[in-house]
Amino acid sequence: MDNQQIKGAGLKVTRPRAKVLSVLQGSRRRHLSAEDVYKELLINGEDVGLATVYRVLTQFEEAGLVCRRHFETGQSVFEINRGEHHDHLVCIRCNRVVEFADALIEERQRAIAAQHGFRIEDHALVIYGVCAGCAKE
Amino acid sequence: MDNQQIKGAGLKVTRPRAKVLSVLQGSRRRHLSAEDVYKELLINGEDVGLATVYRVLTQFEEAGLVCRRHFETGQSVFEINRGEHHDHLVCIRCNRVVEFADALIEERQRAIAAQHGFRIEDHALVIYGVCAGCAKE
DNA sequence: AACAAGATGCGAAAGCTTCCCACTCGTTCG
DNA sequence: CGAACGAGTGGGAAGCTTTCGCATCTTGTT
After folding, report:
1. What are phi and psi of B30, to 5 degrees?
2. Are residues B12 and B73 in the same domain?
3. Chain B 116-135, CB below 8 Å of chain A: which residues?
4. Residue A44 phi, psi (nearest 5)
5. Are A71 and A92 part of one and the same domain?
6. Could you read off the pLDDT of B5-25 as tens digits, one per residue?
7. Whose CA is closest to A91, among A135, A127, A134, A130?
8. Domain range spanning residue B59?
9. Distance, CA of A13 to C1' of C26, in Å
10. CB atoms within 10 A of CB B75
11. pLDDT of residue B3
C-alpha cells in the first residue's frame, strides 16, 4: 500500500501526501512537473496548495521515492523512482520522453570520474532530438 | 581580433558586446553565469545593464560563439565555444568543473537515438560528484 | 555630418519555486 | 477514546533568474 512508502520515509500519512503519490503512480505520463501534479489534484477535487505540492515532492525526493529531473524546459519534472537508473531522450518538438539505460555508457562514466579523482554522486544524460513522429511533419 | 567574431555573427560591434566577449575569454574560470559576467564588468568600471548581458549572451549563443549549460545550480552558465564538443564533471561541493570528451559514449548515444527513431540535435551529459580536493576535507 | 536601424539601460514583469505564519490535522500517550 | 503536541497545510507574499518594453543613445552607412 502507498501509505507504507510514506511512513517508511518518516513522514506522516496525510491526505495531500497520499494524493500526490497516487497521481505520480497513476499518471499515464511518467514525467510530471509540480504544476502538472497540482492541476491533476484540482481536477480530482482535492483542495491542496501549490506550495504543498512542491514541499511534498521535495520530501519524496529526499526520501528516494521520486527523482527530480532538470530538462531544459525551465521547470523540474518528477517521476517515481523504480530503483533502476536510466537516462532520457527528449523530443524538442513534442516533449516526448523516452527512457533508456546503457551499461557501456555507465561503465565509461565510472572510468572517467575515477580518472579525474571524482567520486560519482549522480549523473544526468539527456539527449535532445526530434522523434520519428515529429520528423515527419 | 575579437571584433571580427562579433561582426561575423551579423552583430554590430558595440562596447557591451566586445566587453562581454573579452570577459568570457579572459576569465580564469571557463564557466560563468550571466551574473558573474555582469559583476566582472562592473568591477572593470563598465556601465552595462544586466539585461544587456543576458541579451548579448543569448545572441552569442545563437551565433555559436558561446555555449549555454544548464547544471543543476539554478542558473545557466556560459563558456566560449571552442568547437569541440565535450561533457562535464561537476563537483557538488566546490562547483569545480572538469571537461571531458569520450568517443565511445558519443558513439553509443548515436546508436541509442537511432534505435528510438530520434534525430539528435544536442545532448548534455553531466556527472555530479565530489572531487579529490573536497573528498579529503 | 546626418540618418535609419539596431543596441542599450532601466525598471517592470514573468515564471518557477520557496518562505512565512496562523490554522488544522495525525499520532501518541494517558 | 480523547487530549495535547508537534508536524503539516494553504494562501499569499517574496525570492531568484531571466525577459520585456520603451525612451534614449550608437553604430555603420550614405
Report:
1. -90, -20
2. yes
3. 116-132, 135
4. -75, 5
5. no
6. 999 999 999 999 999 999 999
7. A130
8. 2-80
9. 8
10. 10
11. 86
Same structural domain, B8 and B36 = yes
pTM for this one?
0.90
All cell numbers assigned to A80 = 517515481
> Which of A88, A100, A116 is best to mutate for the B interface (most B CBs within 10 A)?
A116
Backbone angles phi, psi at B56, to 5 degrees: -65, -40
pLDDT digits 0-9 by tens, B49-62: 999 999 999 999 99
How high is the pLDDT of residue B125?
96
- What is the reported pLDDT for A41? 97
Nearest by CB to residue A123, choosing from B117, B127, B131, is B127
Q: Cell numbers of A13, please?
A: 500519512
Identify which has the larger pLDDT, A74 or B31.
Answer: B31
Amino acid at A75: Q
Q: Are residues B97 and B124 in the same domain?
A: yes
pLDDT band (50, 70, 90) for residue A1 = low
Say if residues B98 and B43 touch (Cβ distance below 8 Å). no
| Number of domains chain A contains | 2
pLDDT at B1: 53
State pLDDT tens for residues A81-116.
998 899 999 998 888 899 999 999 999 999 999 999
Going through B63-107 in order, the beta strands assigned E by DSSP cover 66-69, 77-80, 87-91, 97-100
Q: Using CA atoms, how far apart are residues A72 and A70, in angstroms rounded to an integer?
A: 6
Is the four-CA dihedral A101, A103, A107, A112 of positive or negative sign?
A: negative
The domain that holds B70 is classified in CATH as 1.10.10.10
